[in-house]
Amino acid sequence: MIRQKRGRPRLDRALSTAISNSPTKSNKHHVRSVRLPHSQVERKYREGLNSELERLRRAVPTLPQSDEGASMGHIKPSKAMVLSFAIDYIHEIERERDGLREEKTRLERSVWTKGGKVDK
C-alpha cells in the first residue's frame, strides 16, 4: 500500500515552467508565474529592511550620517543602535511637544485672566 502525502500536490517544476513560458490559446490569459527561490526572496526582504533602516538612520539627527562617518572617524551604527537612538529621539520630541502644549495652555490662561480673547 502506497501512502500519499497530505497537503497540496506538487507540480513538476520543469512542466510548470514550460507551461508558463509558452502561452497557448487555452492558457493565453492565465499564465503562471515562476516562484523565486527562497534565497532570492530572503535577499529581497533583507535589502528592503536594510534600506528602511538606512532611511530611519538618516531621519534621526543624533546619529552620524554616512558621509560624516568616514571623515570624522565614526563607525556605522548597528541596527540595534539605530532603533535605540530612534526610540530615544521620539521620546525627546514627545517631551518637547508636551512642554509646548503646557506652555500654550499657560499662555492662554494668562491671556484670559487679563481679559483678552484667545483665537484658536
TrEMBL record:
Q: Which is one GO molecular function term here? A: protein dimerization activity
Source species of the chain: Plenodomus tracheiphilus IPT5
Name-wise, this protein is BHLH domain-containing protein
- Where the record annotates domain BHLH, the positions are 33-93
* Record InterPro entries: bHLH_dom, HLH_DNA-bd_sf, Regulatory_TF_Diverse
| Region annotated Disordered, chain positions | 1-33
